[in-house]
Amino acid sequence: MSNYSVEGLLQKIPNLTDEELQWDYFNDLKWTQPAASMMALLDKDLALRVVRLALQVDWQLGVRLAGEVKKEYGEEAFSLVDSLEIPVLLKIRLLGKSKSLAAISRLIKLLEHKKSVVRYRAAEVLEEIKSEAAIPGLIKLLQHKNVSIVKKVINLLGKLQAESAIGKLIPFLEHQNLSVRQTAINALLKIESATAITQLIKLLDSEDLSICINAISVLGEIQSQRAIPKLIGLLDSQEDSIIIKSISALGEIKSEVAIPKLIKLLDAENRNVVESAVSALGKIKAQAAIPLLVKLLREGRSWGAASALAEIKSFLGDRSLIKLLQYDDYNVRECAAKALGEAKSSAAILPLIRLLVYASPSRNNCLAAPASEYRFAESALEKIISSATVFSIPPLIKLLEYENHYLRCSAASLLGKTKSELAASKLISLLDDKDEGVRLSAASALGEIKSSAAIPGLIKLFDSEKDDVRVDVLLAILKIKSSAVIPKLISLLEDEDFYVRATAAQALGKIKSSCAIGKLISLLEDEDYYVQATAAQALGKIKSEVAIEKLISLLDSEHPSVRFSAVSALLSIKSESTIPILISLLNSEDSSVLSSVASTLGDIKSELAIPGLIKLLYSEKSDVRESAANALMKIQSETVIVHLIQLLKNREFLQAKNGEYGWNALNALQAVQKHLGYYNYKPASI
Fold first, then answer.
1. Entry pTM
2. How many Cβ atoms from other residues are within 10 Å of residue 514's Cβ?
């Protein structure tokens, strides 16, 4: 029996009893492939006997073997599958185990089912099968009167990349229903064959505006080079909508041949045409268009020209944008700053800093809000410095010397974005700045840099600041994640401010400081429920078994967030001692708790949890059922198989939710079978 060969099984099968065939051969997963290969060699009576016996061992096995019989009696084999008294959704799942014509024809027929969930599942399985054998049947369904069914079929033909369906799909580009037209476009995009492109190019001559526009969109999205001459010709259309769509398509195709024609359209009267041409020239990276794009921007005729110049990413384009930072019109300056940020031009750092200084409030009115272009310049610098750290640090450090507190705040914040220790010493000195905003910006920047050298200064700042800003300083300290802050954090667990206590607890949890366990446990009795919840989460991250008893007591808290945090902590600890309490939580009415507990019990691989997890397969919440099924997959014991097979024999369970409950159970069963190497437990009577 160790020789798993088709020939050996074929010789033995006539002499084997039903029970021998079922339990010595079919129940062993290693025999599945040889048995499947053998089916086409069997005569009708023997093949049908094998399918019947296999279905008794396992439904999925029976369907697999039914799909391998000779075509002439494939329908009779699948009539045995049809006779199974199981819900249609479950039957769909079983049919997906076969790629035979008999199975596919049944799935295609189910695409016409009155229930949308059945149609959806059937389509989903046909997509998984990916069999070309389904295409003829799907093409026939394109004539169906139900629009939702037609859309489903069109979508499937696209996913199957059915070239033979192109001729039938093209007319749907003219369908009166917009959603159907869009589905047809998407399907043709997926097929993307020479035949489809030829048909689409022909549609560019259509007198129907919407058909022509749809065809242009598809050709642009698939970036068809063959369509370029025709699309360029459409730029002379009398219809602006056709011109705009054609411009967009040429931009997507990145057609350099179209550049001269697109440049001419920059003088068009219709502003939408101009903006479309600007965008396309940017995508094509048309260097020849730079002077005209600059002109459009200066004249205020196209704010999109700045983005196009950034997209071209050339020395000439960047230089032109930098010059525009000094232009009279602030709108032009803002657009140029934004574009230079998008281009991440390191050459623009100093000019943008100059704009920052220019746009900041004057010394005589330092309390006024900065001009909008100040924010544009600051945002552009943020984008640039991430890739040009070395170039940006010296001028930004110099900016810290300005009296204007807006400039010092911005410089500190930007230096933080560099994440460079080169700026740390200067930022540390700012922790003593006279301006509160500057001190906080420096603290935040040092947190971004993660400078351990800043910890003494940050702790000093924390102790000296007012209550309403201490938390901001504390958050900066936390980002550094240094063991040097642990003593300070532990002392803050007794702070008068509940938010400081909670933030310190959160930080100690992230650091996973075992030194803090005792103090954190005491916080589980804090007067503030938010502090209790945060302390519980921290103990879960530290995985403190010492805290288990106290955490269990929080499961009776009147505050949902405290109960949930206690559950999360117990789940994180994953101790053998928590299993009984976790199993008891499977009776919770909170679906998020049920899902989390089920997942953890699966990780622990607790067989004691199997009955409770089986009950969750009855849950009305799909996420709970899936979590329970996944947990059972992880436990991977024969006990799971026994429970699941008994459950799948329960008619009430199978019929629930149109078979969705059975779908989850079948998923779990298949995974455990694969792990154990057999389909079913052997009855005691055999």
1. 0.62
2. 12
